[in-house]
Amino acid sequence: MSPPVRAVCASGQRLASRRAARSSQRVFIGVCALMFTASVAATLAHSASMSAMGALPMPGGWSMSTLWMPTCGRTWARTAASFIGMWLVMMAAMMLPSFVPTLLRYRDAVVSRANPGRLALLTMLVSGAYAVVWTALGVAVFALGASLAALVLRWPALARLVPLAVSVIILLAGALQFSTWKARRLACCRATPSLTADAASAWRYGLRVGIDCAGCCGGLTAILLVAGMTDLRLMAAVTAAITAERVAPTGARVARAIGAMAVGGAGLLLIRAIPAG
């Protein structure tokens, strides 16, 4: 084959490769959009069902969600499974806007070494490992939440301290936004990976991203948990905050601004909670 013919063939192959990559990228974005839409719809449906079930009024002027206890004849196992399912759906709705850019960076890093089919498999492995981390965190959250719910139901004096404890947790979560630890976690979440295009590397990367992500937004997740896990307005605000600090050019500055708002809100809650406590 003459050099001009080889050059034409090579150019055609490169063009076909770029077209395949663009097509794969469009499919990926479309799947992510569908998943986000489905997770938002499921979150709205679950929130509506929880609102219909109501909440338990507690000493100290607050109400406890029935998320944390068996109701209507349900067993603890069924309650835990329901919570984990709700947790995963809610986390998908909240984390996808900030996780998709991470997946795009990963795909850009390995696209030259993987065909579209393999790239899709590697993307699923990264996403699956990421989901494993959040599932484990959901199990831990339910165990802690159910234990605390049992305690406050048993001891009314402890229940009266909950508004004060919530204020302190939000204050600490806001302060965490200013820490170097938070800045490091945020930098890890925003970094472009340098990886090999193999399954083991993709799985390890997904686990690492999941751990960094959970740590990075740990304070904001704690605010959501203690201030109202089924509050759609708060959920939307936390989602916007997590996404902004991940994708904004000045993410660290955005994180500090969010921290300042959280600290200010915690101060107002403390003023209200101290008389009640």
UniProtKB/TrEMBL annotation:
Keyword Transmembrane: yes
InterPro entries noted in UniProt: PpoB2-like
Keywords: Membrane, Transmembrane, Transmembrane helix
Keyword Cell inner membrane: no
Residue stretches spanning the membrane: 27-56, 76-100, 121-151, 157-176, 254-274
Top-level division of the source organism's lineage: Bacteria
Name of the protein: DUF2182 domain-containing protein
Lineage: Bacteria, Pseudomonadati, Pseudomonadota, Betaproteobacteria, Burkholderiales
